């Protein structure tokens, strides 16, 4: 980065693509060319180190080619599921009444949240650690309790017990 003002310094950012722990930023005096300060991975707080390593792992940069191909395989698997899921539903969809589907065709039944406390604890933990996931769970629960169970047409179409 270029200096800002008379007292500014040049900042050189050393981005280590395959090793996030080798990242370093050096601030260089604009007049003398000496290093004024350095800030690297060792200076990061613990959470920043975890995030840096997590981003490298997520992007497939941490363990070389193996990590890259594993990430690519997961991506292809998700694309496959996005295509095969609706196709499988289409083949097994419920019958139609007068051109309108009788129901969505989702399987009936409830998750055993009350009988499986580990599942309930896991859902609450995921909801706390992943706030948007938690908000979506609350939104679906409210939608189910306040709308789907009280409107007869929706209850029939979604086949709500």
The largest sheet is: 3 strands, antiparallel
Rg, nearest Å: 26 Å
Helical coverage, percent range: 40-55%
Order of helices and strands: EEEHHEEHHH
Low-pLDDT sequence parts: none
The shape, in one word, is elongated
Based on the structure, what is the oligomeric state of the protein chains?
A: single chain
Please report which band the strand proportion falls in: under 5%, 5-15%, 15-25%, 25-35%, 35-45% or over 45%: 5-15%
Notes on the protein architecture:
With 161 residues, the protein is of the alpha+beta class. Among the domains are: 37 residues, no CATH class; 60 residues, no CATH class. 49% of the residues lie in helices and 14% in strands. The protein contains five helices and five strands. A three-stranded antiparallel beta sheet has the order 1-2-3, with no helix packed on it. Strand 4 and strand 5 form a beta hairpin. Helix 3 packs across helix 4. The N and C termini lie far apart (62 Å). 1% of the residues are buried.
């Amino acid at each position: 980065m270029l200096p800002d003002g008379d007292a500014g310094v040049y900042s050189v950012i050393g981005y280590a693509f395959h090793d996030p722990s080798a990242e370093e930023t050096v601030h260089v005096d604009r007049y003398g060319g000496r290093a004024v300060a350095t800030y690297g991975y060792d200076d990061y707080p613990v959470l920043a180190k975890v995030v840096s390593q997590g981003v490298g792992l997520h992007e497939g940069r941490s363990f070389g080619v193996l990590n890259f191909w594993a990430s690519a395989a997961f991506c292809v698997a998700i694309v496959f599921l996005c295509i095969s899921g609706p196709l499988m539903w289409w083949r097994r969809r419920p019958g139609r009444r007068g051109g309108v589907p009788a129901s969505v065709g989702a399987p009936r039944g409830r998750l055993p949240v009350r009988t499986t406390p580990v599942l309930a604890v896991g859902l609450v933990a995921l909801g706390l650690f992943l706030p948007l996931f938690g908000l979506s769970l609350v939104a679906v629960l409210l939608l189910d309790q306040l709308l789907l169970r009280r409107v007869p047409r929706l209850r029939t179409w979604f086949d709500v017990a």
